[in-house]
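quick one, two chains, predict together pls
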Amino acid sequence: MEQLFQAIYSGILYGSVYGLMALGLTLIWGSLRMLNLAHGSLYLVGGYLAWTIIDQLHLPLLLAFLLAVAGAALVGLILQLALINPLLGKEGWDSASLIATLGASIVLESAALLIYGPQVKQMPTVVEGQFKIGTVLISNQALVVIATAVLFLVLMSVFLRASRHGLAIRAISQNMDAARLAGVPARTAFLIVMCISAALAGLAGVLLSSIFYLAPTSGFVPMVKALVVTIFGGLGSVKGTIWAAYTIGLLEAALQVYLGAGWALPGLFLFMIVMLVVRPNGLFGLGEVRRL
Amino acid sequence: MIQDQGLSTREAPATLSRLQRSAIPWANPNRLMIGVMLLLAVLLPWLTLRLAGGRFITHLLITFFVWGIVTQCWNLIMGVSGIYSFGQLALYAVGGWTTGILALHFGWNPLISIWLAPIAAVVAALIIGLPTLRLRGAYVVLLTLAFHELLRNYVVNGPTLVSGGGYGLRDVPKLPFEQFGGGWEILLYYYFGLTLFAIATYAIWRILHSPIGMAFRALRDSEDYAVSRGVDRFRFKLFLFAFSACFTGLAGGFMTHYQGAASPSLLTFGVMINLLAMIVLGGWGTFWGPIVGTALLTALPEVLRAAEAYRNLTLGIALALIAVLAPRGLVPLVSQAIRTLVRRLRKQDGPI
């Protein structure tokens, strides 16, 4: 019973953060049809910026949070303007965008290594206090993380359904040609998608590295897990992604609790392989027709 | 597979026109160039071993042969057939570990066990390929990365037989070349590597210039048309995947015995990126691209030893720049430039 409760608690924590990461990936996939391999390094940008501002500059928490997320969004903007925009509409888009984002991720990762060194960084505890339910220790910081993540997932959902730009993004994901004919400015929409996606990755970086440690390579695993979530939920589907994030989070936590931490990633991958063989279009298999 | 298609005509009749001959490129290799290059490659170590630090240069050449095989095979998968597989390094490791374990723990003769490396790699490729190759794009990236991570995990945390307690395989028996004396040992390794490289390169050239290669170019350029003309995408992809795994595994096995070790650090992301950069810099999807890229990225880091700390940063910038400015890579860029230059010198606009 206690183990089950521990698994559910960690699962919700992981699921919330994976949801943020995966939502960014799926938005980009849906609109740009691009696999953004730099997503994990945007996570790093958020994490390291937050660490620098809180631990080195001793600025207030909220400011650090805002600056880190804005910084990640800015890096995303630069990425889009410098690397992705010149490739739009050229032949060999699939491979060129894959390589461009891979290059960007290597640049950001090695920059982090050069600036911060290979030692792991630990964010200071910003929200004090913890309490116990049974034998499961729950920290207030983790609760704040979950609350923030859920808040932003809801905000994103509202943004995509109700705002003008959100509707434009959804229109482009459903049918690019029709959306452009109807007067949706595609490049502006791409720019907004990239900024939002980068901000979400940065946010995930801030939140998750406040609980775990931070190293120049620690963007890779969250990105791979976000990929697992995105594909499990059906590429390009927002609803599916959020459901999948919590499913994968709970599954990972259960694997950790019942089989040991070493099994989490291999277990997820084995699950993924079986899943793709059985249902190649994901949990909410939208196929190629309906997205977002 | 070639004979099935009924397309293969090995011997071209002597009376074909130039245009007709260019339609069957596998029938007319440039024999003179191949001969000269092979002769140079055979004589090269006799020259390098006389230079100061010659052993190291020869060692670099052997490294070039091994990575050259791997990048050519990976290019066949990534560039030619458009399967975004990140599992090539894992296949290389499967080969290396197979023969390493057989020789180290079961006392096999390395000269025999090395031939099991390609077989194991092909089996692994079929295991990954069967579920993966029906899928596309992002799915393939994820599944092959997953396979890579699973293998890395197993090699680090697996039973001691495989992981050696986290150090990998150490003191693996080398190929029995030392009995010929110190000077001969590295020379024999060089010739072994050269032979493997030459065979792999010829096989890949043959594949590229065969009905299979043409089917892949058709699939890449217009998939709908190729499929409607009867190209079975899955079967061709699986064949190429297994074919490239065969040579990759063999290269892995050779490297394990040459170094006498197989370390889990082989499976880090940095090595993978380095290999990918070789393909991308040289020319994605071209025959010469991976060879030139491998030569560049094997030689340059040794020349620029001082910049070692900035190696990854430079590689990343180079990848991004290439993707934006010259997505086809350096080899097509340079050959295009030379062709334009020649045409301008002749001052006439003929067809290319």
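The two ends of chain B are 33 Å apart (CA to CA).
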